[in-house]
Amino acid sequence: MGEETTTATIQESDVSDETLSNLLHEERHFDPPAELAKNANVTADAYAEADRDRLAFWGKQAERISWAQPFDEVLDWSNPPFAKWFVGGRLNAAYNCVDRHVEAGNGDRVAYHWVGEPEGDTRDITYADLKDQVSQAANALTELGVQTGDRVAIYMPMIPETVVAMLACARIGAPHTVVFGGFSSTALSDRIQDCDARVVITADGGYRRGAASALKPAVDEALQKCPDVRNVLVVKRTGQDVEWTEGRDLWWDDVVGRQSVEHAPEAFDAEHPLYVMYTSGTTGKPKGILHTTGGYLVGTSYTHWSVFDLKDDDVFWTAADIGWVTGHSYIVYGPLANGATSVMYEGTPDTPHKGRWWDIVEQYKVTLLYCAPTAIRTFMKWGSEIPAKADLSSLRILGSVGEPINPEAYMWYRETIGGGRCPVVDTWWQTETGQLMISPLPGVTSGKPGSAMKALPGISAVVVDDDGKPVEPGSGGYLTLTEPWPAMLRTIWGDDERYRDTYWSRFKGLYFAGDGAKLDEDGDIWLLGRVDDVMNVSGHRLSTTEIESALVSHPKVAEAAVVGAKDADTGQAVCAFVILREAAGDGGDDIVKELRDHVANEIGKIARPRQIMVVPELPKTRSGKIMRRLLRDVAENREVGDVTTLADSTVMDLISDNLKSGSADED
Ligand code: PRX
């Protein structure tokens, strides 16, 4: 590609009194492939249509959903920030995700190509299969006394029964709260208590990294603090030994297996709670984000169809865990509402070898792949020769979610995985937003490496300054949403006040997402990371994302995390932690100087890290986000704080050991 040089320059005007300095400049861009543009589900007209009448636009998208009773009003926003979408409408989420496809004659269509981690352990589940299983599970929950409105906690591996359990809850109007299977018993008991769940669905274990990994012991431990839980339904996945509490614990196969496959879905109000998903707050206990039924299904199904340009013969793969919102919206509700065929994979990407994902893409001829930048950077670290062994020619669109994607990771994804022919859609959204919010449309928008581009049709995102005024193109600020959207959170479970304070109080009348962003000269949006991660160096606010992207653009670097540490001279100083690519070995004697100079060249001296530490791993949450708080502890020589939400809690030990053994460099 001829135009592939990153021109990263510092602009004098940018480091003045702007809200967030706008330092990196990226000039590459890629137009939509002509064929894709010609046949795209959505054309540029959608933006104009939504601008003309946003509510009419969403009213039209709601036709994707089958309503048992039509709605009278698209939106009731008379009591902000408490929205009601599709007022008066009634529907059943499970009916929309399953039954109606069977009724339409598509019962034989595969809903999931499920791939267990042990090789050869696969199952194809059709929509007809799913309908039977969901009906049985719904009957079982009813038998266990679960009623409409009761909460059910789900703590499961990535197996088909997890989807069945979620849909069975939705079918009887019992909101589920899925707790990620990698979380500890304390995280589980906190969540069960917060939403007062009385039934827990779990499994003996699941497969991760080549071994059976137990889940049931964490449930047993958690329930010591949750006396109100009366039943635990246990799926047998691994066959490992489990402790058993008679009367409380029940095998899924025993209870679900004997139920009728007939179950009449009841229609619930559009605003009936669908699920609560917990997400960490900056302080205090996790927030239970409440999503409701009608708006959520409209928002997720429309965005899945439009952003991934979903066609009948597509094979869609969200390579994320069901335990976080990406899994809820784009493994379960969006794709199923659209009657799509998805891949669902249980295990880790390096089991039994580092090419596992690419074998799956080849075997199932995956056309649409959706994953997180952290995975992409890991694959970059492992080397391009691994995906090169598989046939990836079925792929047509690649998606990214969860963090800003560094331009070099975007390019690698586009070239190495997408063969240079697949558009990359960098999708910005949150647990709170429920649906994709800012993203290119693959048949309409030119992609720029590192930019999520524009708010989707019907969504209104504005970057504002400290006073809540929109910034000019070329400037940075805070990302806000100015209008309600269908899949928006309705509140924080049991805490309306916290909902208002957290999201709606920083800027009057605006939803504040907590992210920094900049507009480029074309008005396209670049995410700059969480504002709590912003550094202030000699009075200039620098974004962690831009410096990390500069580091990742160095050929020896696979991943980087940047934090601000207290500094006597500059207030805060930039400290960087980097993982080298495998091919770079230990990086050589001058690696630290080389990288510091590289950042100075790419961005400017102000961003040159004071300290660079080469580390084997970075502390991440299970959804792949770097926990900068812990790195700040290291950079400021403090004892490392709470590590309970880390995907791998030994990582911090690895980092400290590594630093002690001398690979830390400071000058
Ligand atoms: O900081 C943004 C980042 O992830 C946050 C939301 O995290 P969570 O609720 O866990 O949901 C993740 C999956 C939707 C956002 O506030 N984020 C998410 N997508 C992007 C992103 N940052 C930059 N670019 C993205 N595409």
Draw up the topology in text:
Layout: H1 34-38, H2 45-52, H3 54-61, E1 73-79, E2 82-87, E3 90-91, H4 93-106, E4 110-115, E5 122-126, H5 127-143, E6 152-155, H6 160-172, E7 176-178, H7 185-195, E8 199-203, E9 205-208, E10 211-214, H8 216-223, E11 231-235, E12 249-251, H9 252-257, E13 268-269, E14 273-279, E15 287-292, H10 294-307, E16 315-318, H11 325-337, E17 341-345, H12 356-364, E18 368-371, H13 373-382, H14 385-388, E19 397-401, H15 407-417, E20 424-427, E21 461-464, E22 476-481, E23 491-492, H16 496-504, E24 511-519, E25 525-530, E26 535-537, E27 540-542, H17 544-552, E28 557-567, E29 571-580, H18 591-602, E30 611-614, H19 628-635, H20 651-663, E31 664-666
Parallel strand pairs: 4-17, 6-7, 6-8, 8-11, 11-12, 16-17, 16-18, 18-19, 19-20, 29-30
Antiparallel strand pairs: 1-2, 3-13, 4-5, 9-10, 14-15, 15-23, 21-22, 22-24, 24-25, 26-27, 28-29, 30-31
Helix pairs in contact: 2-3, 4-5, 4-6, 4-11, 5-6, 7-8, 10-11, 13-15
The structure holds adenosine-5'-monophosphate-propyl ester (PRX).
Give structural attributes.
single chain, 667 residues, alpha/beta, Rossmann fold, GMP Synthetase, Chain A, domain 3, seven-stranded mixed sheet, five-stranded parallel sheet, 30% helix, disordered N terminus, disordered C terminus, binds adenosine-5'-monophosphate-propyl ester
